[in-house]
Amino acid sequence: SPERAAPERAPRIYTRTGDAGFSSTFTGERRPKGDRIFEALGATDELSSAIGLAGEFSSEKGHTFVDQLHKVQCMLQDVGSNLATPLSSAREAHRKRTSFSEKPVLELEQWIDSYSEQLPPLRAFILPSGGRSSAALHFSRAVCRRAERCVVPLVQAGEADPNVAKYLNRLSDYLFVLARYAAMKEGKEEKIYIKPEP
């Protein structure tokens, strides 16, 4: 009877399948956890976490671009799906399901242009600064550059879609411009590089 049915058990968060140092790609292929695919996936995951933190700081300040950051995090899930589907072992069904188009790249370019038009021109090298929102966005930009460095060899080896690398390249530019925009909107001063006295 329903009254005597056992309660549903939540699935365990741990699987133990990676205890020997291997993990699976989306195609089912087992590779060492140190494989460059998992390096790229880890860097992308870290990037999404950094953007999430920047988004929380920015939300506290009422910035309207927070929805864009959430959309970027969703796109990074798609980036991860593409990276987890190495083209050397992917069937056509895998490729269709995890393909990555140029459309998100073009959207980032539109956002970059929109914010850039509102910013004062760059006259010096800017250090990560300008308040918590801005500094967190600068940190996200630095993590994005590392993710891009991890992804480029996969693209060059024909294992990932070139649009993934393009997206990360534009994303770092977007995060830089957005960091400056956040500082400007909050009235925070951006620290600039000053050459030390010899």
TrEMBL record:
InterPro entries from the UniProt entry: CblAdoTrfase-like, CblAdoTrfase-like_sf, PduO-typ
SUPFAM superfamilies in UniProt: Cobalamin adenosyltransferase-like
Any GO molecular function: ATP binding
Keyword Transmembrane helix: no
Domain of life: Eukaryota
Biased composition (Basic and acidic residues): 1-11
Key words of the record: ATP-binding, Nucleotide-binding, Transferase
Domain spans labelled Cobalamin adenosyltransferase-like: 13-182
Keyword field contains Cell division: no
Catalytic activity of the protein: cob(I)alamin-[corrinoid adenosyltransferase] + ATP = apo-[corrinoid adenosyltransferase] + adenosylcob(III)alamin + triphosphate
Positions of the UniProt region annotated as Disordered: 1-30
GO biological process, one term: cobalamin metabolic process
Function: Converts cob(I)alamin to adenosylcobalamin (adenosylcob(III)alamin), a coenzyme for methylmalonyl-CoA mutase, therefore participates in the final step of the vitamin B12 conversion. Generates adenosylcobalamin (AdoCbl) and directly delivers the cofactor to MUT in a transfer that is stimulated by ATP-binding to MMAB and gated by MMAA.
Entry similarity comment: Belongs to the Cob(I)alamin adenosyltransferase family.
Subunit structure: Homotrimer.
Annotated NCBIfam families: PduO_Nterm (TIGR00636)
Protein name, as recorded: Corrinoid adenosyltransferase MMAB
Species of provenance: Ploceus nigricollis
